[in-house]
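Kindly inspect the following:
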Amino acid sequence: MKTKKQKELIDSFLRTLDAEDKSVYRDIIVYLSELGYNPKKERSHISFKHSRHNKQIAKIGIRNKKELSHFFALRFSACNDYSQKFAEVVRTNIEKYPSKTPGCIDNTCEYCAGEPDTHIYSYTYPDGEKKSHCGASALEIPNICADDSNEIKQLIKEEHEYLLKYEAKR
């Protein structure tokens, strides 16, 4: 973390986790920090953005303070090679939010840079039907664990490289 305030923000979140979750989240947070992403409190969650593009790549938070239900969301729309767990996250979001089709495909959105196919979430169903979801948002990854850590960091790296290439302020 760059500042004492950022460190305190992260520490206050990590204190709410058990030892196993704390280790997983700390590993991811440290990696985000190494890449230049800064944590910032936004309403009920902490978001991670880079000063060169100001796009949110990840967010963490507590959904229910009484039950301490934690969540982790990741923007990985520029990534194509990921496990079935992440493919299911994409499928779930496509079905849960059918109105979040990518506007960039029909030129009704100017939020993201680059060709639409390079930054939208897409899922191909067993019958061959392909559906898409807006790639500008981070998707919640349920039940992250130590086994997911390396894949999450790889997805962060790929998304980070994309954002620096297409979205960074020059």
